[in-house]
Amino acid sequence: MHEPLPPGSVIGILGGGQLGRMLSVAAARLGYKTAIFEPGGDCPASHVANFHLQAGYEDEAALRRFAQGVDVITYEFENVPTSALDILETLRPIRPGREALRISQDRIVEKDFLSGLGLAVAPYRAVASEDDLRAALDGIGAPAILKTCRFGYDGKGQARITSPDDIPAAWAAMNGAASVLEGFVAFSHEVSVIAARGLDRSVAVFDPGENVHEGGILRSTTVPARLTAAQRGDAVLLAANILNALDYVGVLGVELFVTSRGLIVNEIAPRVHNSGHWTQQGCAVDQFEQHVRAIAGWVLGDGRRHADVVMENLIGDDMARLPDLARERDVAIHLYGKADVKPGRKMGHVNRITG
Amino acid sequence: MHEPLPPGSVIGILGGGQLGRMLSVAAARLGYKTAIFEPGGDCPASHVANFHLQAGYEDEAALRRFAQGVDVITYEFENVPTSALDILETLRPIRPGREALRISQDRIVEKDFLSGLGLAVAPYRAVASEDDLRAALDGIGAPAILKTCRFGYDGKGQARITSPDDIPAAWAAMNGAASVLEGFVAFSHEVSVIAARGLDRSVAVFDPGENVHEGGILRSTTVPARLTAAQRGDAVLLAANILNALDYVGVLGVELFVTSRGLIVNEIAPRVHNSGHWTQQGCAVDQFEQHVRAIAGWVLGDGRRHADVVMENLIGDDMARLPDLARERDVAIHLYGKADVKPGRKMGHVNRITG
Q1: What is the mean pLDDT of chain A?
Q2: With 70 as the cut, is the pLDDT of residue A1 above it?
Q3: Considering only CB atoms, which chain A residues are within 8 Å of B7?
């Protein structure tokens, strides 16, 4: 049995971007306060949080002060430096736990973990040099994609390889970082599953969403996704499998390729996920509240979808479409409060209720 | 034509309770920052706002500092002292405007205003003494209800009169304050309309909700309300009538009695209203965002209801029901972050999606 964190407890969030912002609002809805640890000033999460500790992840004193002011620590991004976690974990519980971070911080470790669970992943090979890359491409075959093992997001740290001629440029693009070559998967479409596991070990899974990417950045998520009943069942089971294997507490995002031979896991993210934003308009308990419920020891929400939704990201100049979007029916607008519009920058999203 | 306030502008909110809290979250969702003016520390709105200026309404320097730090001023309660408004209005626009406050701050002025628009209200008489009360009761007849003209809320400042014997006690309960005697209305049920008017003078009205009160405090609001199509039309038209007469900008709540002879206006509130909380789960644009849209010069949201909802307040010890509520399907929980549970205190609400 777990008593939930009492009302007024403080949830510490590492990272002050839009995910931290929406987590803060959800925490407030459940009666909690929030403290944000974020090096940047005027960050999106700070606008809706009780406290913002502006300091770098190498600032040990700040990390200690932060931990001492909160009751539980969570994060909005998986690349939290290990040295910071080493300090924080001695002071307060970190949820989801470090094993999830260790695995998701490195693409090869992650793929080994997923394969070890018996889940299908794209063919992959570790690459530490141009020679490695050549050998890996021989084994996997073109086309393939080279990715840095760590710190990649929104298509960054990636290079496509369509023939051996691309090898030198692709390897150069990695800047010498440990990388992984992944074979292309012939998939019809991509879906993701947003799943949660509570302190009581119960699991709740949101309806899978169908994702469209453009330039490596998520463009839209549509629920319901095009999936057979069997595929839907597989998606739920594999997500639960991952959560249990990690003894996970919180929300996890799992990206899946849909192929004629079944679902293939693309990657996992140990946090709330852009492809789960539709839950804000589609469910009584959205992914942000579900995460807060999990890490605060509440019972999980059931996650049932009561509406069809299309989530669309507002990226860079999409902000110019706001006046039109504001006029549309059944469109919920969510802006992130970022000061500057930049190309490729996620400025907000809209959830369109379609049924 | 009105250009909306640019992203990153600061919305100043007078009052730091739960309405200010939910307005802050809505403002953030539209890319704005918020500043709260509230004498109390650790107030619900401050948990999700950028700034909290903790000062009293008699602190002129604080009021000036507040106004200079914001782009537009709104409020979450109608009893903002006139002296404070006199200072603030010289510095920044106050929306809704002062006329709405002047009228809603005094029950007699409000009833005169509504009657002047040709709207039906309960019979009423001004009462300034026990003799006045006796004469008023003679004219209106028992049962009736005596209310202070100003500063009443949640059933406070009210006394029921069922016979002339009740007169001394009822008058004593007013503590000498200017009061109004209202005749009882034989109504079948009570509904309220949450309506909005934009800077462009457009009007949008949410579907009326049906209210149940207990001990003078709102217990629940159900949408759709039991209303004929004609009553529904009347409700929308009279709300628009009030908004236009006040040249209003923002969200207004109108409480109505449903009777066999038509709708009778109980009272109006120049702000977001407890009976509009259902819109958080029932509409793509809820009453809080609608208010922010209006005062920030956005186009209004259409307010269409996409779900049936029952809103139930969590009052005092209702908080003990949280573990059960958290387990229910299709129930969205909204807590206000108040430190202490007190009898009669609104601690939160739940929105139950019923269809």
Answers
A1: 96
A2: no
A3: 319, 335, 337
Sheet holding A10-14, edge to edge: A51-53, A33-37, A10-14, A72-75
Helix, strand, coil abundance in chain B, percent, nearest 5: 35, 30, 40
Which residues, including other chains, have CB under 8 Å from residue B71's CB and lie 6 or more apart? B5, B9, B10, B11, B12, B92
Identify which of A351, A345, A348, A310 has the alpha carbon closest to the alpha carbon of residue A332. A351
Q: How far is CA B209 from the centre of its chain?
A: 14
Asked whether the predicted pLDDT for residue B243 surpasses 90, the reply is: yes
How far A213 CA sits from the closest chain B CA (Å)?
Answer: 24
Rounded CA gap, B285 and B290, in Å?
6
**Is the per-residue pLDDT at A127 higher than 70?**
yes
Q: Give residue B2's pLDDT band: very low, low, confident or very high (50, 70, 90).
A: low
Assign B151 a pLDDT band (cuts: 50, 70, 90): confident
Mean pLDDT for A6-19 is 97
- Chain A residues with CB under 8 Å of a chain B CB are 7-8, 21, 24-25, 28-34, 46-50, 281, 284-285, 293, 298-299, 301-302, 304, 306-307, 319, 323, 326-327, 329-337, 339, 348, 351, 353
Handedness of CA B177, B180, B181, B183 (dihedral sign): negative
Mean pLDDT of the A160-179 span: 94
Quick count: other Cβ atoms within 10 Å of Cβ A176?
A: 10
Residue-wise pLDDT tens digits, B299-349: 999 889 999 999 999 999 999 999 999 999 999 999 999 989 999 999 999
pLDDT of A233 reads 96
**Integer distance in angstroms from the first to the last C-alpha of chain A?**
39
DSSP A185-239: ---SEEEEEEEEE-TT--EEEPPPEEEEEETTEEEEEEES-S--HHHHHHHHHHH
Report the distance separating Cα A66 and Cα B351, nearest Å: 34
